Amino acid sequence: MTANRALLAIGGAILVALPFVGSTYFLHLVIQILIWAFIYTAWSLMGRFGFVSFGHGAFLGLGAYIPALMWTYWGVTPWLGIPLAVGASVLLAVIVGYPCFVRKVVGHYFALVTLALSQVVLLSLTAARDITGGSLGFTQRAVGHSWYALQFPEKGYFYVIAVLLWLVGLVVWRRIDRGISREALEAIGEDEDAAAAVGINVMREKMRVTILSAALTALGGATYGQYVMYLNPETVSGITVSLQIVFAAIAGGVYSMFGPSVGALLTLALTEGLRVWFGTEFIGGANTIYGILLVLCIIFMPQGVVGALQGIRLKRALEASKPAEVKP
Questions:
Q1: Which H/E stretch holds residue 138?
Q2: What is the pTM for the complete model shown?
């Protein structure tokens, strides 16, 4: 058995055992880590090819709010609301992405457009306070244990859902990484004109990965909304959430399949640890330290934590493969 397979086997065993050995609070943290890991993985589908989007907070917000509002006001099951939310996010991605790609809006200009998109959704959710609750937030109508309403007071159900969701994200990431589109997207990320000159359909490839990333992000947002039940525009949309997605994915490593998951583990564990450590003292101190550590991580490990570890492993392998010097 290779080292990678052994690690996968150990990781699988831990995932299976967690609901039985961990406390309710610990299981709650793990569920959130898995859901956010899926969301970060969805963003990395674009980010790893140089398509830096600061607008994924918009897709996350739509995914979280649409099923919740439809269920609370009209009694529409989330099993219908979630696909509609994903469809709305895809439509928004097309409305914004297509003109940008046609006009060849790239680099920091594209990042600014997506940043504005995220803020527009935040302001829209806040302004519609009669429906969404505005800045005060919105709590879904609770009915207890119900598959129809996709509500489970027992965290074990959502743990299984979160694990399956996370695995779906990894499968999608791997299929793109091993698929023929990877070379095309890498070429587009390097030079769009050169990629088009060799016969790559730049528009199709960019729209495909953008739509897929937006759809998965909305799916993650819908799952998160169903789990926490309480939604606030500031926590599921806007610039803050978009930057959180970008920084966490980069800190973990966007070029590795497990990089965004490591980013989710590190950032959520760090956030929760600092919150418990500081408590009600030094208000704002936890966020300040969190931000400083995250910036330092990105500066000194631009390939992310996983990328840095892989670099160390590769360096050691190269050193071990060198022939030993023969002493005279």
A1: strand 138-139
A2: 0.91
